[in-house]
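ingest -> validate -> predict -> emit
validate: passed (alphabet ok, no gaps, 326 aa)
predict: started
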Amino acid sequence: MKVLVTGGAGYVGATVARMLLDHGHRVTIVDDLSRNDDRQIPTDADFVRCQVHDIATVLTPAAEFDAVLHFAGLIAAGESMQHPGCGWHWDNNTRASLALLEAIHTAGVQRLVFSSTAAVYGEPTELPLTETSPTTPVNTYGATKLAVDQAIGSYCRTGSLGATSLRYFNVAGAHTNPDGTMIGERHTPETHLIPLALNAAATGATFKLFGDDYPTPDGTCIRDYIGLTDLARAHLLALDATKPGEHRIYNLGNGIGYSNQQVLDAVRQITGLPLHIEISPRRPGDPAALYTSSARARDELGWTPSQPKITDIVADAWRFHQQPAH
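emit:
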């Protein structure tokens, strides 16, 4: 297939692009490099630097793309609550995605895989979450992604587009390419717990933990962590399974919840280094617990995660963190 990957300079996008190339697909990456540099873009992919708002200049009928995988967007829930009224996340996540959907329609592309999020579920009323759980996001990030999911469903009902929305839980770890190089987290700014904790352990800095008074066994948030390689594999399976006229939705996680404190304990164990923690107030929009059942992805895509242990995921992230020029 000839595949367009938006956000392909990023953590997940670059990994999936690498896998697509390794499976014989032709890949064009679009990224504006506003949150990443170009170090992880596969050198054998075509690259166009532009915003998704302007995707119609790349995604044309003459380009003859067979599929689009859409990763581009802002990803930090906490950040989205600092700017909930200015339209920043709505513009970058929702408005840009609507421009992409219209370009897909005009170009006659029949397959779309969308990087969605568990944040669409908000504060759960029951666990584990499933694809039929109520979608009541408690932060702007989740609301923007849910709006895109709904728009995708509308386009699929026209019959020409088939799409799959993959609702990630907490992606972590690193991916090792066939040549031994690694892809890992290097967001700007970095907001994810594991790379921040690894950096704090490595440098002796203090790690800021947001909230220790949640209604959980140790008072810290519980999240479902999924390894990067496992997540990337799911995209290739979803691409193959996507059919015109259908909008499929899958939750992707390990089905196991780890608290923030358990993750920090894993960081200490894997690095062998002390980790100094400062307790800060809760961040607005952070649910107490989120973890999922991925039974639908297992039954319909044949996908199961290979890394259920948080220590394995942290170990991969630590190997990446120790690489030169990280």
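The first helix runs from residue 11 to 22.
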